[in-house]
Amino acid sequence: MYEFKIKNTRLKIKLGDITDEETDVIVNAANSSLMGGRGVDGAIHKKGGPSILAECIEIRKTLPMGLPTGEAVMTNSGLLKAKRIIHTVGPVWNGGSHGEPELLKNTYFNSLLMAKRNSLKTISFPSISTGAFGYPVKLAAPTALNAIADFVYSEDSIDTIFLVLFHESDLSEYVNAAKNLFKN
Ligand code: ADP
């Protein structure tokens, strides 16, 4: 576990499976259908059980075109230990000049805003977009961390933010980026 402090917020970066997190809320790297998928999305629905998909289906009634990239919605967490799930849709990597960095920032910022609005104090993120969506981790890591820092400086409401990485190599990228940005 690697720890950094941004203002009054603790940022903890670790290796792990996000479905085991016991934080107030975990973030799902969903797709716009909200109907489940592979990767972290599949793992969350599989372990959390059908009540999560049932609520996603209800939400889709208000979003017939699906959840736009960069936005976030919240559901119950079914059988998981975390209290809630925030579903967000990261950008598909398409070379980097199609707004990908801004959209990736939005996923982190809007998820944190959703947590704040619901008085949730601890939150766990996976590495959004860097699996099936193909966003290079080396570029995603500093963008994710910048979005987190922007949120903490402008909103200041979350106690602890966890980044839960599934691969050693991803852990190194996020830790190196955090050392460069936060220098502690
Ligand atoms: P995206 O479609 O946004 O790229 P993916 O789920 O394909 O989402 O991948 C995002 C990251 O989440 C990848 O690094 C993947 O290895 C990782 N991942 C997959 N399963 C889990 C899990 N259970 N906990 C944490 N991270 C996971």
Keywords summarizing the entry:
7 strands, 184 residues, binds adenosine-5'-diphosphate, alpha/beta
Task: Give the topology.
Elements: E1 2-6, E2 9-15, E3 25-30, H1 39-48, H2 50-62, E4 72-76, E5 84-89, H3 100-117, E6 122-125, H4 137-155, E7 160-165, H5 168-182
Parallel strand pairs: 2-7, 3-5, 3-6, 6-7
Antiparallel strand pairs: 1-2, 4-5
Helix pairs in contact: 3-4, 4-5
Adenosine-5'-diphosphate binds at residues 17-19, 29, 39-41, 43, 90, 126-133, 164, 166-167, 170.
Give a short summary of the structure.
The protein is of the alpha/beta class and 184 residues long.
Q: What does the model show?
A:
The chain has 184 residues and is an alpha/beta fold. It has a single domain (2-182), classed as Leucine Aminopeptidase, subunit E, domain 1 (3-Layer(aba) Sandwich), CATH 3.40.220. It has helices spanning 39-48, 50-62, 100-117, 137-155, 168-182, and strands spanning 2-6, 9-15, 25-30, 72-76, 84-89, 122-125, 160-165. The longest helix is centred in the C-terminal third of the chain and has 19 residues, at 137-155. It starts with a strand and ends with a helix. The model has no long low-confidence stretch (mean pLDDT 97). Bound molecules: adenosine-5'-diphosphate. Residues 17-19, 29, 39-41, 43, 90, 126-133, 164, 166-167, 170 line the site of adenosine-5'-diphosphate.
